[in-house]
Amino acid sequence: MDGAALLLSLQLALLTVVILVPVGIVAGRWLATRDFMARPLVEAIFALPLVLPPTVLGYYLLVAMGAASPVGRWYEAATGHPLVFTFDGLLLASVIFNLPFAIQPLQRAFEAIPEDLRHAASCCGLTSWQSLWRIELPLAWTGLLSAAVLTFAHTLGEFGVVLMVGGSIPGETKTVAIAIYDRVQGFDMAGAGLMSALLLALSIVAITVTYWTSARQRRKHASAD
Amino acid sequence: MPPPTDGLHVELRQERPIPLAVTLDCKTGEVLALVGPSGSGKSTILRTIAGIYTPQQGLIDAGGETWLDTAAGVRRPAHERSVGFVFQHYALFPHLSALDNVMQAMGHVPPDERRERALRLIERTNLAGLEARRPARLSGGQQQRVAVARALARDPKVLLLDEPFSAVDQVTRDKLYEELAALRRDLRIPIILVTHALDEASMLADRMCILHRGSTLQADTPLAVATRPVSPLVARLVGLKNIFEAEVAGHDAHRKVTHIRWFDAALEARHAPQFRTGARVAWSIPAAHIILHRRDRPSRGERENPVAGEIVRCLPMGEMTAVALRVVHGEKTDIFFSVPTHVAERNGLAVGETARVSLLAEGIHLMPATHP
């Protein structure tokens, strides 16, 4: 068991969730409630990480964050160290490749709220912010939970993008998924098996919790009807 | 015309996507019903007043405040307009209790007074004991009452009701009519009621505004609209079935009647001197002004505009029987009226039989013909 890699993965997943959930709330609500011409394009861009091969996405992120890129140069000038092959670079990449996992469940949850409820909130004198906190988020909380769980689980398991952008620097960018690959390469099947089982268990628990809460919510509504 | 200082004044103009050409006023304490078929723009007007829809051009003044003036660039957002809005399906917040639903609209009330005031509203809308229930555990009528209480909790300058009775059964509806009629006596604000039910508008509204494709066709008292529609279209929209065309034969100012020629029949109508002799006009008559001549003895007013024809439809519907009398063959001259079923039976009314009716002159209303 590579404890450092596991800790790094958990740290990365947690920070990604913390950053992406607010982004998902804002973007998901925006996409759910606004109608504009470029919406399909914006949705397609947010969904790209779902269909792009991780190595392709990793390649573009590597180029975009590298020392030759404006982002890379700016970051290096501001912090004194490069963005790629660091934890910060890995976190930025993780945030980008998890965008659809955070935005889509929240978008669907906000779309499921009848438009009249938002209008009723406005007519009650609630500002858009008050409507979000008091009315919409309590009704969209299963979407919020799904977004958090899917982002967390997907970050733990991501391999291609992590390898391209972060490499495999122990304690800095070596996540548990990379560690499993390294163990297999080194014929340590027992170590790889243990870590794989741990990831499997974590994923099953996370997904089960999501489905359980959704089903509970559905049952609650059904019994109320 | 300058907008009134109190009450509600609305002017809306828009070509698309929803055509609007509406001017309406509603005084403090008055109930104005917006009536029209689906797609006539009545809900859009309500949403525009509330601020959840913005037309291309518009002016809305409510209680001395300007909520919308597109020419001056004024557009007050919905949450800054004091409106009480009862949505068609109530739009109650499903995760909150009845009391919390009402309290959401009390942002303008000091926090320590909100609960007490919300409880008073709950009691006023006959919901005492149900304040802790969520909407899903309330009946349709109770949900409507919560929606009304929430709308009033805002201390609105205007109360907007969007088909508030359409989602409840008839028994509940009758009860809610009475409750709303009682409630409005205490409300000193303009109330706009959207409905497509004429009887509802007649029962609850002081005035009604007939809308068609986003335009105001007529705004008047329910009785005036029902008996004196300004055009055949309004007559059709208010449910009049007897709409025909005729020619003005002359006026008798002394007897206050206008003579019209309808095919071979010479009829007397309510005095309408605005139409010149020889003009083509449309005319309508409510079914209540059509009197069936009894076969066994003389009937009231049988010498007044007597008309004979063949019965082409005779349909018993409970206590009443709907009858269609074709006056001239091959023409659109079917006169529709209803009689009590026992009267229809006693007079032997049946398809193919001949019957005579009187068209009471006071009920014959002349309008400009559809095509000049």
Topology:
The complex is a heterodimer of chains A (225) and B (372).
Chain A lengths: L2 H31 L5 H13 L2 H12 L4 H10 L7 H11 L1 H13 L3 H9 L4 H12 L1 H17 L2 H7 L9 H10 L3 H36 L1
Helix pairs in contact in A: 1-5, 1-6, 1-9, 1-11, 2-6, 3-10, 5-10, 6-9, 7-8, 9-12, 11-12
Chain B lengths: L7 E7 L5 E7 L4 E5 L6 H9 L6 E6 L2 E5 L4 E2 L7 E4 L11 H6 L7 H14 L15 H14 L4 E5 L7 H15 L6 E5 L2 H7 L2 E6 L2 E6 L1 H6 L4 H6 L5 E10 L4 E6 L2 E6 L9 E5 L5 E3 L13 E12 L2 E7 L7 E7 H6 L7 E6 L5 E4 L4
Parallel strand pairs in B: 3-9, 3-10, 7-8, 8-9
Antiparallel strand pairs in B: 1-2, 1-4, 4-5, 5-6, 10-11, 12-13, 12-15, 13-14, 15-21, 16-20, 17-18, 17-20, 18-19
What does this structure look like?
The complex is a heterodimer of chains A (225) and B (372). Chain A has 225 residues and is an all-alpha fold. In chain A, 80% of the residues lie in helices and 0% in strands. Chain A has helices spanning 3-33, 39-51, 54-65, 70-79, 87-97, 99-111, 115-123, 128-139, 141-157, 160-166, 176-185, 189-224. With 372 residues, chain B is of the alpha+beta class. Chain B is built from nine helices and 21 strands. Chain B has helices at 42-50, 98-103, 111-124, 140-153, 170-184, 198-204, 222-227, 232-237, 341-346, and strands at residues 8-14, 20-26, 31-35, 57-62, 65-69, 74-75, 83-86, 158-162, 191-195, 207-212, 215-220, 243-252, 257-262, 265-270, 280-284, 290-292, 306-317, 320-326, 334-340, 354-359, 365-368. In chain B, helix 3 (111-124) packs across helix 4. Chain B starts with 7 loop residues before the first strand and ends with a strand. The A-B interface holds A 114, 116-117, 119-128, 130, 134-135, 138-139, 221, 224-225 and B 47, 50-52, 77-85, 87, 89, 91-95, 104-105, 107-108, 134, 136-137, 150-151, 153-154.
